Amino acid sequence: MENLKVMLAQEYVQGKHEVKGWLCSEKFDGYRAYFDPEEKQFYSRQNKKFNVPEWFIKAMPPKLLDGELWIGRECFQGMGVVRKKVPLDEEWLNITFQVYDIPNHPGNFKERLKELEKFVKLSNTRWRKISKGLPYPINGIPCPVVMAKQTVVKDIDHLAKLYKDIISKGGEGVMLKDPESIYEGKRSKKLLKYKPAFDEEAVIIDHKMGEGKYKGYLGALICRPLRNHDTYSSIDLDDDHVFSISGMDDAVRKSYKKTHPIGTIISYEHSGKTDKGKPRFGRYTRVRTDIIVKEHGEEPIEQVKSRIIEIFKILGNHEKTNGESFKASAYFKAIKNIQSLDEINEKSLKEVKGIGKSLCEKIMSIVDTGTCNAYDKIKNLKDPRKDFLEISGVGPKKAKELVEKGITTIESLRKAPNLNELLNDKQLIGLKYYEDILERIPQKEIDLHNKLLKDVLKEIDPTAGMTIAGSYRRRAKDSGDIDVLLKGDSKLYKKFIEVLEKKGYLYETLAKGSKKYNGMCKLPECLTFRRIDIMVTKEEEYPFAILYFTGSKDFNTLMRQHALDRGLSMNEYSLKYDDSKELVDHKFTSEKEIFEYLDYTYVEPWLR
Length: 608
What we know:
Elements: E1 8-11, E2 23-26, E3 31-36, E4 41-44, E5 49-50, H1 54-58, E6 65-70, E7 96-101, H2 109-130, E8 145-147, E9 151-152, H3 156-168, E10 174-177, E11 187-194, E12 198-209, E13 218-228, E14 233-235, E15 243-245, H4 250-259, E16 265-270, E17 283-287, H5 301-321, H6 325-339, H7 346-350, H8 357-369, H9 373-378, H10 384-389, H11 396-404, H12 410-414, H13 419-422, H14 425-432, H15 434-438, E18 441-442, H16 443-460, E19 465-468, H17 470-473, E20 478-479, E21 482-487, H18 490-502, E22 506-512, E23 516-521, E24 530-537, H19 542-550, H20 553-565, E25 568-570, E26 575-577, H21 591-597
Parallel strand pairs: 1-11, 7-8, 21-24
Antiparallel strand pairs: 2-9, 2-10, 3-4, 3-6, 4-5, 6-7, 10-11, 12-13, 12-16, 13-14, 13-15, 16-17, 18-20, 19-21, 22-23, 23-24, 25-26
Helix pairs in contact: 5-6, 16-18
Keywords: DNA damage, DNA repair, DNA replication, DNA synthesis, DNA-directed DNA polymerase, Lyase, Methylation, Nucleotidyltransferase, Sodium, Transferase, Ubl conjugation
EC number: 2.7.7.7, 4.2.99.18
Pfam families: DNA_ligase_A_M (PF01068), DNA_ligase_OB_2 (PF14743), DNA_pol_B_palm (PF14792), DNA_pol_B_thumb (PF14791), DNA_pol_lambd_f (PF10391), HHH_8 (PF14716)
């Protein structure tokens, strides 16, 4: 097939394009390609040959296919291998051909997809036979022919969800195609692309002359990015970040020496950045005269760390929302390690356990530019799952399920006709008190809870003891909930809960076990309901429970490590010999005695 003209997309504009019922697929950030079965050759959209390994060609079906050579999300840098004159087998192991159309099929897109599905299945069947005769490791990889997933768009909210889901996972955007459309070898209004656009500024450092129809005119602007420092910008002096940009109209191309001389500040759009920090698919938008540019001095290390920590917290919570606990943990561990650094550079980061290449690149990007690609992709995303995760008892799986059912706000969840089927009893209570649970509890209010609880306990047993632990004991200005530690037995615990319920203080129960109560409480003089946990501990465990549940987490980690260094293991119940697991021969009656026994300087709760 000589000089095939592929179907190209127009930009999707909300309000202008009605796409209900259209088919949506991921926009792959690879190389657009079509496979010619007669010549057994891959071509680019400009009809230039791709040099492909022979085994990759063998995997293709005998059909003209339109698709994308792709290595995976956020891996565009690795796609350079497809441009090599001599392909290396090992460099193609992770590359797939994501197919999404058949250019020479006469039917509409729905019909073409049915035909395409048959040929992809045929390829997979053939590959299982072909791969057996190929050398290792090629014989162990899946068939490289993959059919791009297509989803019918239900409405504008459904499209927004599909788009955000792909962007949040590192995708480039989505493609939308009319199911009734024929294949057109031009830029078609029946095929739309929907991808994020980032706005930034740059300074022109050179001009590149045009070729072909632009011979004698401006071809591209050579630029350095600007780094935004809120009240001013500075020039990014990293040569790896220098880029060329097009998108100017003919008037600019003709008069660029006058209108766009070297040193001009411009705004441009791009679709994210490469691993090296260069803008991808940069597009010129306009000249800027309101940008203040000056040399950027050395930023205080604490200020730099504060920005990194702020961005990593957002990224960590985003991964947590996605159910990616391992990735979330990596961000939160990095935050702890960053706090202790005296300087931040590639050398110092390489010496930090838990900070690998990916995190190091993100940190250095934040140091250099104030941001990083991963953060730029999600910073403006409104993810309803985050709101649902704030409901007591709702985890990532349930939050995702609610969004998939088309529920995107707390209000729409409350109005759902089948609410009792969507949430269990505990989650329903969490939803009922959603706003109250989100509201922080002032220290002075917890003082009132403390007095009420102690008065009730004194009525039951004047010799019993209790402590409100957590951030309240550390004298934080506010807390998320009330953590009560009760010293006694199960009989005291049951009586304590019973009396508090009769008095109307414990208003709603989330969970009640033999040792721990979770629920909602309220002071008579207050309108807001509060989350409360009440846990009973034996007298000999009480000092350890107070120490553990007071925190902070970092302080507890340091103290437990101090114990381990002395051959001891400590938790919220006791202190044991690490080797024999036997309790130490000592009766502890207070926190201070634990410190003294471990020869650890006593630290007041508010300093931990």
